[in-house]
Design a protein that fits this description.
310 residues; alpha/beta; TIM Barrel; 2 domains; 9-stranded mixed sheet; 11 helices; globular
C-alpha cells in the first residue's frame, strides 16, 4: 500500500473545484508541460527551491549554507540560484528566516493527510463539499491518490479529481470511479497545437474520455464527468477548433458539461521564483464575457457549457 505522497499545498475553503466547500490537495508531478501552467511548482515530482526576491534581506545565510556554491548575489537578480548546479537539497531554505527561499514540495503520509482533511468535515457536511485532488496531476502518484480517495469515501467525504487523463485507461478509471466529480482538462483539440503547448499528443486523452464516458453510461454511475478547457483564444483554440471539439464532445457518453476557464496569468511570478521562463508575459487576463463566442459554439451543438470567472 502506497501511504506517502509528495504534495506542495493543501488549500482549504476552495469554492471552484467541485460542489460546496472543498479541501484541495495539490500533488507534485504532471505528465504535461503546459506553457501557461498556473502551478509550475507542481510540474516536477521532485522538490524544488523557490526564491522570492521581494522577501530577501540579503543576509547571506543562504550562500553560507549552499555546499554547491550555486547562489550568487547580483544587483538585478538578488541572491538568485544557479539552477544548473542546484541539487534542491534545501539547505538554503532551512537557513532563510524570512522564507525568501522555500522548498516547494513535501512528503506526507496518508494518516497525516486524512487528519488534516477531517478538520474540515463540518464544512463538507454543511455545504455538500469534500476533497479535491489536484496538482500537478494526482495520476502521477496514482496508488496514493487511489488510497486517499478510498479513505475519504469510507468516511463519507465527497471526492473529486482534476486530471489531464494522460495515462493508461486503467489508472484513469480506477481513480475516476472513486470520485463524485471528475474534471478532465482538454487543453487543445488540434493535436499539433496540443503537442506544441503541452509537450504531448492528445490522442490518449481523447480515447480515455470516450472510454470513461462509455463505462459510466453503461453502469449508470452517478459521477459528474466534466471537461475543462483553459482557453486563450487563437492560441490553443480558434472558433474552428471549437467546432471540431464540439463534434468530439458529443461522442462522449455521460458527459455532464464543459467548463471554460478564461486565461489568467496569476502564476506568472512563480516562474521567476523557480528559475523558469514564462511564455505569456504581457497577455491580459480574460473574463467570462470575453469567451461567450466560444461557449456559443458548444451550446449550438446542444452541449451544456459553463464559463467560469476568476
Amino acid at each position: 500500500m502506497k501511504d506517502k505522497a509528495n504534495i506542495f499545498n493543501i488549500q482549504r475553503y476552495s469554492l471552484h473545484d467541485g460542489p460546496g466547500i472543498r479541501t484541495l490537495v495539490f500533488f507534485k508531478g504532471c505528465p504535461l508541460r503546459c506553457l501557461w501552467c498556473a502551478n509550475p511548482e507542481g510540474i516536477y515530482q521532485k522538490n524544488e527551491v523557490q526564491y522570492i526576491k521581494q522577501k530577501c534581506t540579503e543576509c547571506g545565510r543562504c550562500i553560507e549554507a549552499c555546499s554547491q556554491n550555486c547562489i550568487k548575489a547580483t544587483p538585478e537578480a538578488g541572491f538568485a540560484i544557479e539552477r544548473t548546479k542546484c541539487q534542491n537539497c534545501g539547505a538554503c531554505a532551512q537557513k532563510c528566516f524570512r522564507k525568501a527561499k522555500m522548498i516547494a514540495g513535501y512528503e506526507i503520509s496518508l494518516d497525516e493527510l486524512m487528519g488534516k482533511i477531517r478538520k474540515d468535515k463540518a464544512y463538507f457536511e454543511s455545504s455538500g463539499g469534500g476533497v479535491t485532488l489536484g496538482g500537478g496531476d494526482p495520476i502521477m502518484q496514482a496508488d496514493f491518490a487511489e488510497n486517499l480517495l478510498k479513505a475519504c469515501k469510507a468516511e463519507g467525504i465527497g471526492t473529486a479529481i482534476e486530471t489531464t487523463a494522460f495515462t493508461s485507461f486503467d489508472i484513469y478509471k480506477r481513480c475516476a470511479i472513486l470520485c463524485d466529480t471528475v474534471f478532465t482538462d482538454f487543453k487543445a483539440f488540434d493535436d499539433e497545437k496540443h503537442r506544441a503547448l503541452t509537450g504531448v499528443s492528445n490522442t490518449r486523452i481523447k480515447d480515455n474520455l470516450q472510454r470513461l464516458g462509455s463505462y459510466l453510461a453503461a453502469r449508470e454511475n452517478e459521477i459528474s464527468l466534466i471537461v475543462r478547457i483553459p482557453l486563450l483564444p487563437d492560441v490553443n483554440y480558434t472558433l474552428s477548433d471549437m467546432e471540431q471539439a464540439a463534434d468530439f464532445f458529443k461522442t462522449i457518453e455521460a458527459l455532464t458539461y464543459i467548463e471554460i476557464l478564461p486565461f489568467h496569468n496569476l502564476g506568472e511570478s512563480k516562474y521567476e521564483q523557480l528559475g523558469l521562463e514564462y511564455k505569456f508575459t504581457g497577455k491580459d487576463n480574460l473574463k467570462a464575457a470575453d469567451l461567450q463566442e466560444y461557449a456559443e459554439v458548444l451550446r449550438n451543438a446542444d452541449l451544456s457549457v459553463k464559463v467560469t470567472d476568476w
